């Protein structure tokens, strides 16, 4: 009995000691967070912002145990990376990136936290009205931008893109290329799920045009509608979208959210050719407009990325608009393929056999560090975050070893597009052109905006919107 009482007493003492340690560490965490909350952010846009204070309180509530873990192990610290222009809407989280861990947050009050190592920007929402200046020499700036240049032209010029240390863009030259962001896998390319035999396509030609066009973003920088409008003079085109509309989809498929519906895919798969025109012409800017026809077993008639030849599944799989002198010449070629089964089938031989001869495409897909609609892999946003996190940790470790930190720097070709150019169509009166009237002037002004942003960034101090626009229009 005495031995049992001693054991009970020992257990009670141990539990009391553990509880006391827990309370002491908890108090330390509250003190640390309280001291940080009292600190006044340097960035003028954050002062008196109730939303930011609410976010901080939420962070304290949700991450108290993480704070206890950090204080109980002083040698284990997590760098903070702030999404300055948020992409996911996720408030705050600890993320493991291999052997490294970083804390990601959209809470801008962490701007001057001593553990803040960098800022992440989503290009479409990159806004000069609020930037994290002054910028410390150790602060990493990272840009994620997979969208068309028309969403934020100012970033597509050397003075602005080179402000960033790390990039994930559609360019194959960026630190984390997103060129294949619309391609789930090689297996999807090879799939026969929607493939319609040529005999059925020929029989359905009685009610369908040889070409189909589906666009509702009209008059973009690529000037695609002007070309297709001219092409329609020489060959029949079924146009289901709002642009050059001449044919209706079934009511359930009229919503833009139905563009990935299997019934919509079934309609497109019946056609022989799909007009696949990007909204902008930039190297490696390749969207679902290119990959979708290939997945469905339809021949793309493609206009867009000048580097598209690098991404073809086989040398004879796509009709390239740029190889024809005029829309009329293209129309004659499509008519010939439409009437000659052997010539048409040559464009789908790779699909029927499942043989992709493009080794660069196969290697890119195999080595890609992220997946699309694949729960077994990180998505490209997580992969981008981890790329930055691991690079931050690499420099932290180099400093501990007495080595010079690595300097990563974006280059001009990480995000670059030429000026928008209208098609030279010789027939008919001169029409209003979105390129001439809207996109070309926007592009020229964006160059001035990029230079103004660079000049203000090199001052390394907060600036006003008025200062920015004054520099843009100073001439």
Automatic annotation (TrEMBL):
Q: Which gene is this protein's source?
A: FUT10
Q: Name one GO cellular component term.
A: Golgi membrane
Q: What job does this protein perform?
A: Protein O-fucosyltransferase that specifically catalyzes O-fucosylation of serine or threonine residues in EMI domains of target proteins. Attaches fucose through an O-glycosidic linkage. O-fucosylation of EMI domain-containing proteins may be required for facilitating protein folding and secretion.
* EC numbers: 2.4.1.-
Protein location: Endoplasmic reticulum membrane
> Domain Fucosyltransferase N-terminal: where?
79-176
Q: What class of enzyme is it?
A: transferase
Q: Which GO terms describe its molecular function?
A: alpha-(1->3)-fucosyltransferase activity; peptide-O-fucosyltransferase activity
The protein's annotated pathway: Protein modification; protein glycosylation
The entry's protein name is: GDP-fucose protein O-fucosyltransferase
* Protein source organism: Acipenser oxyrinchus oxyrinchus
Origin superkingdom: Eukaryota
């Amino acid at each position: 009995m005495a031995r049992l009482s001693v054991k009970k007493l020992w257990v009670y003492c141990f539990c009391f000691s553990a509880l006391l340690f827990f309370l002491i560490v908890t108090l330390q965490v509250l003190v640390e967070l309280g001291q940080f909350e009292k600190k006044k952010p340097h960035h003028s846009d954050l002062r008196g912002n109730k939303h930011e204070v609410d976010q901080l309180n939420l962070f304290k509530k949700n991450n108290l145990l993480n704070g206890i873990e950090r204080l109980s192990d002083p040698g284990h610290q997590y760098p903070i990376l702030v999404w300055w222009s948020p992409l996911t809407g996720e408030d705050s989280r600890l993320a493991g990136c291999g052997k490294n861990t970083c804390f990601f947050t959209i809470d801008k009050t962490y701007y001057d936290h001593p553990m803040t190592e960098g800022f992440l920007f989503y290009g479409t929402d990159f806004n000069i009205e609020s930037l994290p200046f002054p910028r410390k020499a150790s602060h990493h700036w990272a840009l994620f931008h997979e969208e068309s240049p028309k969403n934020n032209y100012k970033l597509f010029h050397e003075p602005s893109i080179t402000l960033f240390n790390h990039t994930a863009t559609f360019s194959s030259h960026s630190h984390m290329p997103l060129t294949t962001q619309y391609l789930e896998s090689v297996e999807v390319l090879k799939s026969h799920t929607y493939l319609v035999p040529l005999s059925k396509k020929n029989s359905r030609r009685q009610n369908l045009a040889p070409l189909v066009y589906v666009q509702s973003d009209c008059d973009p920088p690529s000037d695609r509608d002007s070309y297709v409008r001219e092409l329609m003079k020489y060959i029949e085109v079924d146009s289901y979208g709002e642009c050059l509309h001449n044919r209706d989809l079934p009511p359930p498929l009229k919503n833009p959210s139905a563009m990935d519906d299997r019934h919509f895919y079934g309609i497109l798969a019946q056609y022989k050719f799909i007009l696949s025109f990007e909204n902008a012409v930039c190297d490696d800017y390749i969207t679902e407009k290119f990959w979708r026809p290939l997945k469905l077993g339809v021949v793309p008639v493609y206009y867009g990325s000048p580097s598209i030849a690098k991404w073809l599944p086989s040398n004879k799989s796509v009709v390239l608009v740029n190889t024809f002198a005029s829309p009329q010449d293209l129309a004659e070629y499509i008519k010939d393929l439409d009437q000659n089964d052997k010539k048409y089938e040559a464009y789908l031989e790779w699909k029927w056999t499942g043989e992709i001869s493009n080794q660069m495409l196969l290697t890119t897909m195999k080595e890609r560090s992220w997946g699309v609609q694949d729960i077994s892999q990180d998505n490209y946003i997580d992969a981008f975050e981890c790329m930055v996190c691991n690079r931050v940790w690499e420099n932290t470790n180099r400093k501990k070893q007495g080595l010079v930190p690595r300097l990563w720097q974006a280059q001009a070709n990480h995000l670059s597009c030429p000026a928008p150019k209208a098609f030279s169509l010789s027939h008919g009166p001169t029409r209003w052109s979105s390129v001439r009237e809207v996109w070309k002037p926007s592009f020229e002004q964006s160059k001035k905006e990029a230079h103004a942003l660079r000049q203000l960034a090199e001052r390394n101090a907060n600036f006003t919107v008025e200062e920015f626009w004054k520099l843009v229009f100073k001439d």
